Amino acid sequence: MQKMLRVPLLLALLSCLMLTPFLSQADESTGQTGVEQPVKVNASTELPALQKRLDSLKQRVSTAKADKQFTALNDDAQKLVSDADKLAVALAPQLTQVQAQLDVLGPAPAPGTLTETPQVISQRKQLNNSKTLLTAQIEQTKAIAVGAQNLSSQISGLRRDALKTQIALNTGSILSEKFWTPLLDPSDKDANRFSEFDSQVSDAWQQAWEDEWRFGTGFYLLLALGIGLFGRRALDAPINWILPRWLPQGRFRRSFLACFTTLSTMLTLGISMQLLCYIFTRLPDTSEQVLEFAGQLVELTYFSAIIAGLGIALLSNRHPTWRLPGIADPLAKTLASFPILLATFIFIFGTIEQLNALVGASIDATLFGNGLSALLVAINCLVAPIRVNRMRRKMRAEGEQTEARSTLAGIIHLIISLTAFVILLALLIGYIPLARFVTFELLWIGLVVSCLYLLIHFVVDLCESVFSPTTHSGKILKSTLSVNDRHLSLAATLFSAVGKTSLLLMAAVALLNGTFGTTTPLELLGKIVDIWGGKGLEGMSIIPAHAVNALLCLVIGWYVLRSTRRWLDNDFLPKTMMDRGLRASLVTLFTNVGYVLIIMLTLSMLGIEWNKLAWIVSALSVGIGFGLQEIVKNFISGLILLTERPVKVGDLVSISGVEGDIRRINVRATEIQLGDKSTVIVPNSQLISQNVRNATMGNAQGVATISLTFPLDIDPEQVRNLLLEAYTLHESILENPPPSVSFKELGPTGIVLSVTGYVNSPRMVSSTRSDLLYEILKMLRAANISLSQTQTMILEQPANKLSTAE
């Protein structure tokens, strides 16, 4: 039994002796001797520091807005990636060394076999713990590096998006070599990104021509080409046949044709592009990038097609007699190619810009696309007015008649030329984001204004056609509703005004919310982007959205209010049964409320919150207490006059010895026109606080009274009948109440008779009284009746003194 126990003990001792050199080597490799040990890195302290740097970068990125901030953050992110890679590289040899030591020790023996010494077991456990720790540290380091790299890519995207708001950032002139570098010498990253996307498109194209997809691909391709090239022309023939036969004669035909031309151009080109993109989107293996790019391409096509369609419709070179704007035929033919060129530029460079954003191209490539598109659009907008002016001069030289240019057309011409010049100047001095911003503002505002012009004509012409007494629809309305022509005219005016107002409001919303900071033209069509600010001129804080929104709100609001007031005053209210004073009061009240609303909207667009206007209210309170009492009192009095209407425009009033007609009630004062056409300005508060005689209030009648003195020897009845006859025969004297004669006085000088008659208005009293005096004198002379004369008595007194008394 003892011999059997000695054999395992001897074997264990022999194993320990054989492993002694290796254990010694393992001890040395783990740091006991330090001869072959690499430089150890204290990852337990460096890893938390790297993680803290990454978290700090993420917080700073969330608040960064300026280009300099994004540049510094990108540099810090790249530095963090480098530090994390260095730490991972430093930890890799330690992990390799530990793994080598574990390989020397070998795997742990199975239970029931050879028993290891406690030193070996402890050594293996320590090495396994070190391996686990080092593996976790390397994985964490790589995760930090990947996170920092992703953060760098995110910063690049944010910086590219920030260029949309930082319009005053100098990025370099288009004449510099840096601007053309993406085209002449693109970076490796951009080349790889575009090459990868190109390979995805190529794979989709090859798949589309495989056996199972070939027939559908050919069919959709031919159908797309047919619709795009010949679709609009195919629709022209039936519409030219339908318009003269189905639509009534008038201006509605030309506005309908213009709208149809715009829609047909947009739909044919848009559907054609949808069919082309469907060749790829129907495939099962098409990449997500290709699918996304196809959707963006369709939207961009619709946007560009609208611009081309509007240009073709407004110029109307195929139907010059139905052209909406008053443009001469030679000028329209000269401008025929410019809308198509403009739409083509927008489509090409909008596609490039979308592709840059899709593949994550560099900032330089993005700026190159933005600058080149702005350059071509500006050149197009400059060349068009130059060619038009040249053609006008040529027509005048040849004696041909040109169109009568309005002031509004001249202003539009000047604005387009100045805007194009600003774009070119911004590109030359290096403000490419500013040029891009102004370019898309010009495009969007031009598109909205053109659509508004076309749709307003369409709505007005449609209402006039539907409610015209000469059309079939107008005759049906007259017979069905039993209305007359005046009611139809009033309905046409009302419905056209409602339509124009709705279109103006939609246009205002589109102008205020559809621009400012969008990336591509298609985003102008479908997105409303809020801009919270940006750095201007490398230091100034510029918020373009708020400032431009406020300016547009002020201009549009003032124009809409002015146009609506003119429409109410001249078109709509005169067709109603309201009196002139009520119409004037309504127009004035509407105008005052409109101005208040415009001011409130403008302040809101500037970003001024009403809860932050306490200081303004306080300042106004102090101002009212010291110097604005009279102004506020007159303002409130003006509102009372407009609402209670004790006096109104057109009334004949008398106040403080001033008598005249009220011509206008303003916010602060009222204008009273006297008989000599001069005007007296009376503060509104006086009309409220003082006694005012309103001679025309309540449909007051005028009283024409004449008092005459006759001798004592006349026949009163004969004179009475004569006076009544004179009043009765005058056309202005009313029959009810009838004129009357009253015996006023009987004195030593004669008999005083007063005759009274009523006229329709106090304003007729003076002229009627004058006519009656002429007529009464004639009748008295014909009847040999004289008026009483002044009696004179002469008394003689001593001392040659005379006294005369009347």
TrEMBL record:
Keyword Membrane: yes
Taxonomy, superkingdom: Bacteria
InterPro entries registered for this protein in UniProt: DUF3772 (IPR022249), LSM_dom_sf (IPR010920), MS_channel_1st (IPR049142), MS_channel_C (IPR049278), MscS-like_channel (IPR052702), MscS_beta-dom_sf (IPR023408), MscS_channel_2nd (IPR006685), MscS_channel_C_sf (IPR011066)
Annotated ranges, domain Mechanosensitive ion channel transmembrane helices 2/3: 588-629
GO molecular function: mechanosensitive monoatomic ion channel activity
Short name of any one Pfam family annotated for the protein: MS_channel_2nd
Domain Mechanosensitive ion channel MscS C-terminal: 705-786
Domain annotation DUF3772: ranges: 139-197
Compartments it resides in: Cell membrane
Domain Mechanosensitive ion channel MscS: 631-696
Membrane topology type: Multi-pass membrane protein
Alphabetical keyword list: Cell membrane, Coiled coil, Membrane, Signal, Transmembrane, Transmembrane helix
Signal peptide: 1-26
Coiled coil: 40-67
GO cellular component: plasma membrane
Transmembrane segments: 217-235, 256-281, 293-315, 335-355, 367-386, 407-432, 444-467, 488-512, 542-561, 582-607
Family statement drawn from the similarity comment of this UniProt entry: Belongs to the MscS (TC 1.A.23) family.
Name recorded for this polypeptide: DUF3772 domain-containing protein
Naturally occurring in which organism (per UniProt): Dryocola boscaweniae
